[in-house]
Design a protein that fits this description.
mainly beta, Immunoglobulin-like, 1 helix, elongated
């Protein structure tokens, strides 16, 4: 039993440390939803004095929505949550962009979401 616990602990530690030095990561949930969908986007940003702004975009063929917040450099919260409400059906690319001084892109992260037309809309 102890060797299994040790192996599990090593696997968890390895999985947790993978990507730990990424400057920006996003998680979008749900990955598949029925319209009108509410998406929750959690953006994790490595603190840096040059981080000035973060924009989150939900973009589909016939729909676009974005949200922008100011970042307080190295003292900004590590994790920020955004919510996009009532998204219509479509294949969405959700993008997070952190910009620095002069609008220079510092980091980009992407995720894909599928919002399916609900049976009630037909």
């Amino acid at each position: 039993m102890k060797p299994r616990c040790l192996a599990l602990g090593i696997a968890i530690a390895a999985a947790t440390s993978i990507g730990a030095n990424q400057p920006l990561a996003i998680r979008v949930s749900p990955a598949v939803a029925f319209a009108p969908a509410n998406l929750v986007v959690r953006a994790t940003v490595e603190p840096d004095a040059d981080n000035h702004e973060m924009e989150i975009v939900a973009d589909a063929a016939s729909f676009y929505r974005s949200s922008t917040i100011s970042l307080e450099g190295a003292s900004a919260p590590r994790t920020t949550q955004f919510e996009f409400r009532s998204l219509p059906p479509g294949e969405y690319e959700v993008t997070a962009v952190v910009t620095g001084a002069g609008g220079r892109r510092r980091a980009v992260a992407r995720a894909h979401v599928n919002v399916i037309e609900s049976g009630a809309a037909r």
